[in-house]
Amino acid sequence: MTKTNTLIEDHEIEWTDLGDGIRRKVMAHNPDMMLTKVDFQSGSIGTLHHHPHTQASYVSKGKFEITISGISKVLSAGDVYFVPSGEIHGALCLEAGELIDVFSPMRADFL
User: Which CATH architecture fits 17-105?
Assistant: First the structure.
């Protein structure tokens, strides 16, 4: 069995700079699930992409135009979006903010 951390303090995890005003922290994961924080500067773009993982995202700060399968909507702090496996999706940050992303299964490519 894989040992995982169960009590995680934000300050103990370093940001990974993804460029173009976006950075990410992998907060917790096991083979079945991963939780990340993604920080966006205003105007930053999470380009359209797809992956086999199911994704649920919580807008913890800021304002984003979220596009999923060609449909766009502006979401603000407290809102959530859900991305089924394989769906094309992306984000445009309208006001500096942060997304909390949960993936199932975990994203090995983030490690």
Answer: Sandwich (2.60)
